[in-house]
Amino acid sequence: MDNQSAAGCYIDITKRHTFGIPTRAMGWQEYGSVEALQALLNDLRSRNVDFMPIGQGSNLLFLHDYRGVLLHSAIGGVELVEQDADNVLVRAGSGVVWDDFVAYCVASGWSGVENLSYIPGEVGASAVQNIGAYGVEVCDVISCVEAVDVMTGCVHKFLLDECAYGYRDSIFKQSLRGRYIITSVTYKLSRRPLFRLDYGNLQQAVGENPTLQSVRDAVIEIRRRKLPETNELGSAGSFFVNPVISRSRYDELLRRYPDMPHYPVDETTVKVPAGWLIDRLGWKGKSRGGAMVYPQQCLVIVNTGSATADDVAALAADIARSVWETYRITIKPEVNYIG
Ligand SMILES: Cc1cc2nc3c(=O)[nH]c(=O)nc-3n(C[C@H](O)[C@H](O)[C@H](O)COP(=O)(O)OP(=O)(O)OC[C@H]3O[C@@H](n4cnc5c(N)ncnc54)[C@H](O)[C@@H]3O)c2cc1C
């Protein structure tokens, strides 16, 4: 689509975020290079216009029309920058569609991202969100992240240690939120398959003699069964992050709920599946206005066609409240509310 001017009337961005809730923004600008982004930022700053980077909009809830310009990366390309007998370093432009990147790596025989197949979104956001699935997080394979400082226009290269990655978390979501726009991400992948099949029913789905392609196929098949296709039913994937609680608190809860699952995080904390907490409270299929808890996976809130952002936010708040009232556990949205 053509770039839009920041001035004048609002444009429709309903199809540019996966909830599909009618939304408008003051403008939409695409940049295809670091230099183009720097020029855009310079112009927006000089005119005092608000802006925000956006990928495929697959983790966003716009609470109302966005009073600024959305900046979308069209920086493409996947480049092999270094290799040795064991590993490759591969740089991808922030505008590359994440699953295209995964498909390319699998076809090239590079291992590390196959479990992250079919996650919506683009390469730039993968490094912000620290996307994860089936026991793998993207920070396991990130080597460095290149980004432009929105205040100065300078390019900064963040090494892995500087990104402060945690569970669905990074420095770009915390202290540097809104400060950098990512232009490329470099991943370190293995030339030998390093299968991680110990999560959920993946091993069973893959069967004997796995290959990178068979793991990718199995992940896609499971995800298609469990999650809504964004072009059919609006959603932003898992609405809540799994809460991390102390082991002592978990032991207390276990006395009341002996079947409560958990994944150890470290010596003192465990992660409890938010989906289990919500499911047990009977939320599956419940709705508020046009927003509904997805019947196949109650961690997902879907737009049944007529949802407003208020419907989604109200349903999410009700769910979080009931989880707190029952278990005294706070569950927080994974979805970014844009207010
Ligand atoms: C059906 C479905 C299933 C999903 N499954 C998973 C899953 O298994 N695991 C998982 O981790 N996530 C999952 N998600 C969530 C989503 O796919 C990820 O969060 C993804 O990384 C978002 O990418 P995006 O390009 O759509 O980013 P957006 O939603 O557009 O943006 C997300 C955030 O990143 C920022 N951002 C975007 N691009 C840039 C950039 N270039 N520089 C700086 N900041 C930027 C935005 O400002 C925003 O804060 C799922 C979503 C859906 C709809």
Write a brief structural summary.
By secondary structure, this protein is of the alpha+beta class. The protein has three domains: 11-73, Uridine Diphospho-n-acetylenolpyruvylglucosamine Reductase, domain 2, CATH 3.30.43.10; 78-226, Uridine Diphospho-n-acetylenolpyruvylglucosamine Reductase, domain 3, CATH 3.30.465.10; 234-338, Uridine Diphospho-n-acetylenolpyruvylglucosamine Reductase, domain 1 (Alpha-Beta Complex).
Structure description:
The protein has 339 residues and is α+β, with helices and mostly antiparallel strands. The chain has three domains: 11-73, 2-Layer Sandwich (Uridine Diphospho-n-acetylenolpyruvylglucosamine Reductase, domain 2); 78-226, Uridine Diphospho-n-acetylenolpyruvylglucosamine Reductase, domain 3 (2-Layer Sandwich); 234-338, Alpha-Beta Complex (Uridine Diphospho-n-acetylenolpyruvylglucosamine Reductase, domain 1). Helix content is 26%, strand content 27%. The protein has eight helices and 20 strands. The strands form six sheets. It has a five-stranded antiparallel beta sheet with strand order 6-7-12-10-11. The protein has a four-stranded mixed beta sheet with strand order 1-2-5-3. It is globular, with a radius of gyration of 20 Å. The chain starts with 10 loop residues before the first strand and ends with a strand. The relative contact order is 0.13. Flavin-adenine dinucleotide (FAD) binds at residues 18, 52-60, 73, 94, 119-122, 124-126, 128-129, 131-133, 181-182, 227-228, 230, 235-237, 336.
